[in-house]
Amino acid sequence: MEIILAEYLGFCYGVKRAIRIAREHTDGTSCTLGPIIHNPQMVERLKSEGVDVVENLSDMEEGTIIIRSHGVGPQVYQEAESKGLKIVDATCPYVKKAQLSAKKLVEEGYKVVIVGEKNHPEVKSIFEWSNNKAIILETEEEATEISSCQKLGIVSQTTVSGERFKRIVDKLLEKSSDIKILRTICTATDQRQAAAIELAQKVDLMLVIGGKNSANTTRLAQLCEEKCRTYHIETVEELSPEWLDQIEKIGITAGASTPDWIIWEVHKKCQMILEK
Ligand code: SF4
User: Fold this and answer.
1) How many CB atoms neighbour CB 229 within 10 A?
2) What is the pLDDT of residues 122-135, one digit of tens each?
3) Whole-number CA gyration radius for the chain
4) Ligand 1 atom index nearest CA of 189
5) Which of 11, 47, 184, 259 could pair with 98 as two cysteines, CB 3.0-4.6 Å apart?
6) How far, in Å, CA of 22 to CA of 16, rounded?
7) Is 122 labeled as catalytic in the residue annotation?
């Protein structure tokens, strides 16, 4: 039996950066606004190191507020400032680019479309940077329904698949004669998805590791399921030895918010089961 790790897996640049920044503020007065990443184990570890979580600014009277990699709208910065909180901005630079692109397009008179998931915090933040003017599109059907306009600007959620972005943009091309397309997709997602699909084609079983609340991990699991038997697990405790019966090749991948130590625990347990 063989265990193969995907070429790209686990923490992306933006998440590594956000955690490094949070770890520089473990003085006991710092909180992240919402969980720093969609991984409960990492959130707990940071709490034990001295960085707590608040869901709203109203829950904080003093100290340092850390903005997570998904980013927030401009009014959050204003509110934090007016409360006298110190702001540490760990917004991923790729998300920041999407936010500022939306803002600039609105200022230049474009009707702005964000291709992405309506309820995702990153998309909400991009929407807020558009001065709450953007239209969020999840599907091609929604794209066909929007009305034509003089100037149309398009940005994307950083984690949208390149293929989905293209399909939606294709539908939008007929909506205006002046279209500005800013493909603000981050390569980390494409790389992880392509590497997971490639590996899932070669193995008998895929283990996809990451938070059940992580959209990018869930998407990896869906893509792998199309190629081979797949289990989405959050931690090593969920790995059942029976799954590996009669299996020749196991593939492992992990979402962009999955810490290395969890990946290695799963890898180690697979090895121990194989050696039995
Ligand atoms: S997936 Fe990309 S955009 Fe999102 S945090 Fe990671 S590096 Fe940044």
Assistant:
1) 13
2) 999 999 999 999 99
3) 21
4) 1
5) 184
6) 10
7) yes
